[in-house]
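G., the chain you wanted modeled:
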Amino acid sequence: MSARASVLDPLSETPIYVRQLPELRLGVAWALAVVLFVLGLAAWEAKWRADGVGPTYRNSDAAWAMQRRRIDTGEGDKTVLIGSSRILFDVQLAVWQRVLGERPIQLSQEGTSPIFALENLADDPDFTGRLVVGVSPPLFFSAFDRRAGAFKYYRDESLSQRAGQWLSMRLLEPFFAFYDDDFALMTVLKRQDWPARAGVPNSKDVRRLSVQEADRNTRMWDKVERDAEYNALVKSIWLQILKPPPGVTPEMMQKLGAQQVERAVAAVAKLRARGVPVIFLRAPSDGPFLEVENKAFPRAATWDVLLQRTGAHGIHFEDYPELGAFTPVEWSHLSGADAERFTEALCQILERDFGWPRRRG
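Predicted structure as tokens:
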């Protein structure tokens, strides 16, 4: 049979050429495709394993929504942690549970102000527990909202999305090292050392910094601590981020900061009316991070005003030697071991100075 046959179109008498499909053994083709897929997958997984990468649960909007829904389904009396990445990395849930008898709900979001979560919880009558609010000055007082989309996801998540998250957390995330946004093929290609082009931004994206458990208990990835080259890369990204945006003046930042304080005042008032204690927490920072924070967000004009206006208690690492003794690995977050000791010291302060109760269960 010819590989190419022609027939006449009865309306136009124009030849129509039809390419004949070759005869194939489809079973063999399918088997070959599966083998190639498995080999490619294994090679990609082996590449990242050799680079010191291990499996971790993904810090997705779906994972955050899963923890947020715990408040809606009978756990509204629990301690909740909100904040940015410092509270996410530096507070270890297992240590908190060991010291105070309760494993908190972790709702902190990296690169995002907790103002959004604070207002969300203030408007939720199901939340009647205790609240710890992390304050990272550049994020808290600017209301930067990198992860604010998680709230929309939490409200609108479909049953199919919930099912997908359930399957991901049981079949993929605990077993595959490559199953992380930082190791996606297009992400890896994007961060190669491509030649600079005029008019094209050449900034570096934040790299993987942490490992996470199913309930979003998070600790710093040990590679940031033990790999000097990777640590230097992370610090270079922080230096890039710490540069003030073009056109932003100190007066603009002060005005924006005052607006966030007023939002916090309104939210804390709602929580207090429901009997919810609120404690603000300023975790350690160091190096250029601390220099920028002290210069752009001086304590007297931000932290002190926040506590005075809200009437809430605050724990600042500079006020407690047991908290100020820790040095962040890359100026902003504690190592896993230091985070455990930090959490233990924090829990002891909460119990000793603020009457935080020990619970069972």
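The mean pLDDT is 91.

Shout if anything looks off.
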